[in-house]
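Exercise 7b. Backbone tokens:
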């Protein structure tokens, strides 16, 4: 586990904090609309909403980062991903074409069975 892995992990925690702040902001805004807080407290509700969203994001990131076993698990996951041998661009293109062809073949087979089954049922149940 190098300094680079810890840096990436901290960047992930910051991104998580931003996402959770947005979710918290939207949650508080929705709650304010549903409970009528936006109308009753229209002067200071936007400030409370912003501060609450930021607090939720910061608390979620700190909670995620605080537990040492969880942080070690995330660091070990990053180091394991570094060991992965990723396919080349040519291999990726070949595998993508193979998947597309197989999906096309199976969709034709399923369409044929669907049409056949519909005809059989129309014959049996007029």
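Sequence design result:
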């Amino acid at each position: 586990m190098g300094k680079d892995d810890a840096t990436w992990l901290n960047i992930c925690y910051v991104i998580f904090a931003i996402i959770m702040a947005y979710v918290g902001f939207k949650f508080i805004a929705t709650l304010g609309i549903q409970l009528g807080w936006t109308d009753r407290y229209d002067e200071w509700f936007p400030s409370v909403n912003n501060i609450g969203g930021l607090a939720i994001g910061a608390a979620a990131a700190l909670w995620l980062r605080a537990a040492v076993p969880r942080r070690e698990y995330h660091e070990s996951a990053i180091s394991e991903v570094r060991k992965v041998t990723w396919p080349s661009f040519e291999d990726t293109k070949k595998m993508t074409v193979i998947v597309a062809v197989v999906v096309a073949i199976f969709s034709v087979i399923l369409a044929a069975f669907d049409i056949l089954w519909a005809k059989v049922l129309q014959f049996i149940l007029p």
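Instructor comment: Helices lie at 3-35, 37-40, 45-66, 68-82, 89-124. The first helix runs from residue 3 to 35.
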